[in-house]
Amino acid sequence: MRRGALACGLLLVATLAAGCAGETESGGGRDKAALVIAQGGIGDESYNDLALSGFESSTEKHGIEGSPIESADIVAQGEQILRRAATTGFGLVIDLEFSHGEILPTVAAEHPDVRWAILNTEVRGENVLSIMFAEHEGSYLAGALAAMMTTQTGNPKINPAKKIGVIGGTKSVGIDKFVSGYVQGARETDPEVEVLVKYSNTFGDPATGRQLASTMYEQGADIVFQVAGGTGAGVIQEAADAGRYAIGVDTNQDDIAPGHVLTSMVKRSDQAVARTVARFAEGRFTGGETLTLGLSEGGVGLTGFEHTKQDIPEPIRTRIGELREEIVDGRRDVWNVVSQGYPSWLTG
To answer: How far apart are CA 223 and CA 211, in angstroms?
Structure first.
């Protein structure tokens, strides 16, 4: 999958470069859409792959010509790529890269005929749709589950220490939105549970993820939540090799190491992208709007413990359902570092 997708992305970059030389007209392609792939790239078995699946299915459904755009350095080349996409005939450009939030307002304003959408950050612009996820809500449930599981006895994957962990990609408010929710869920479930926090500083290095996870397991953690894109593949592999648990992220990663992925905190980037393509295809695209997808919208949430249900006592599964309902109906508040800043119990 990785090789085929990369070939497609590189072909598109080449096409963009050729088009840029002789074409400067903006937008207008109501039957053409592009998807800008984020750090970690296609093949991450996580955020990018899930978004791409939604993009491919929705463009096919609506008769839209869809093209992914991938770069070896999507952060440094962000402005160049967005400008090329704007002048290559795409009517819709969906950007998965959080760091492009600073440059997109300028590029979008210069190309008002193009419809733009960006995930994970809010961008102002009459032709820009911002899509946010309530990752902190789903991560709260993951933290609560881990805190309840780490005290279980009679499970060979659980040790006596009341200790769990979380590994983020880069240190940023976007990643710490997951981390804070996880830590809060654990603290409010059992204040005595210690949560180890580390950052890999990369989204595409499974070896680093494996090393960090190994250290956490050696320090006494028995469950590690990975929020590191492709780097997280190493976290999950180490969980299997060490006989412990990992918690997946973004897409359903339960099948990667059956029985060792306790659950996955799914972030439905596929739904977000599909909704955007549908709005564009049906002439319903509205710029200047922010769409938020949380627990109540089905935009985030835990998977159904397909391979671990026998490990999780029924009272714990029931309690997770209760916590979900408390968050959805507003009886339980979950801290959002993006809108509220950093809490005292999580250093910014």
So the answer is: 15
Question: In the sheet where 261-267 sits, what is the strand order?
Answer: 194-199, 163-168, 223-227, 245-250, 261-267, 300-302
- For residues 248 and 232, the answer to whether their CB atoms sit within 8 Å is yes
Q: pTM for the full model?
A: 0.81
Residue-level pLDDT at 45: 80
- Sites in the chain below the pLDDT cut of 70: 1-29, 347-348
Can you give the pLDDT at residue 23?
A: 41
Chain CA centroid to CA 122, Å = 15
pLDDT for res 30: 72
Distance CA 289, CA 132 (A): 11
Name all domains of the chain by residue range, CATH numbers in brackets.
Answer: 32-133+270-295 (3.40.50.2300), 135-267+313-329 (3.40.50.2300)
* Residues 31-75: tens digit of each pLDDT: 999 999 998 899 888 889 999 999 999 999 999 999 999 999 999
Three-state SS across the chain? CHHHHHHHHHHHHHHHHHHHHHCCCCCCCCCEEEEECCCCCCCCCCHHHHHHHHHHHHHHHCCCEEEEECCCCCCCCHHHHHHHHHCCCCCEEEECCHHHHCCHHHHHHHCCCCEEEEECCCCCCCCEEEEEECHHHHHHHHHHHHHHHCCCCCCCCCCCCCEEEEEECCCCHHHHHHHHHHHHHHHHHCCCCEEEEEECCCCCCHHHHHHHHHHHHHCCCCEEEEECHHHHHHHHHHHHHHCCEEEEEECCCCCCCCCCEEEEEEECHHHHHHHHHHHHHCCCCCCCEEEEECCCCCCEEECCCCCCHHHCCHHHHHHHHHHHHHHHCCCCCCCCHHHHCCCCCCCC
- Whole-angstrom Cα distance, residue 87 to residue 333? 44
Which amino acid, one-letter code, is at 4? Answer: G
Q: How many CA atoms lie within 13 A of 193 on its CB side?
A: 29
What is the reported pLDDT for 85? Answer: 93
